[in-house]
Amino acid sequence: MIRGHCSITSSIGRAGAAMLSLLLPVCLPACDSRPADRTVSESAASPDGLWVATVVGVSGGGAAGYFFEDVLLTRTGVEPTPADTITSGTQLRGVSLEWLEPTRLRIDYSYAFRAGGKRLQADMQEVALQWREN
Question: How many CA atoms lie within 13 A of 77 on its CB side?
Fold first, then answer.
């Protein structure tokens, strides 16, 4: 090695360089920048047929990975937008839906992570939301 020349083997040694070359192909996919995969897992129309509540599973992140569920509420026949997400800022798991009345929706869940201590919404548009952790 030439003196004064910076080399990875001089700072971490040959064994460290060999380990780094083995780990990089495994670790780099964890930095996956692809958009999240979104899959509808449940959809329930209100008793009067005016509203549709939908549970969407969101996953991604490559090797490190993540998964949570969003709940969307839209008028029947209307394409959902991000503004229709009831659970914005909250990550839920184990979600199930039940319409108690035409304008009252119960959302059961097994786990909720609320970013910044955010509270779950009490209502959205004309529909009252009832949350229940099970």
Answer: 2
Mean pLDDT over residues 17-42, rounded? Answer: 61
Whether residue 76 contacts residue 67, with contact meaning beta carbons closer than 8 Å, is answered with no
**Using CA atoms, how far apart are residues 73 and 86, in angstroms rounded to an integer?**
7
Q: Please answer whether residues 126 and 103 qualify as being in contact, where contact means their C-beta atoms are separated by less than 8 angstroms.
A: yes
Tokens 């659970």 belong to 87
pTM: predicted TM-score of the whole model, two decimal places? 0.68
Query: In this structure, what token pair is assigned to residue 104?
Result: 């009252």
| DSSP notation for 58-94 | EEE-TTT-EEEEEEEEEETT----GGGBTTTTEEEES
Rounded Cα distance between 122 and 131, Å, is 8
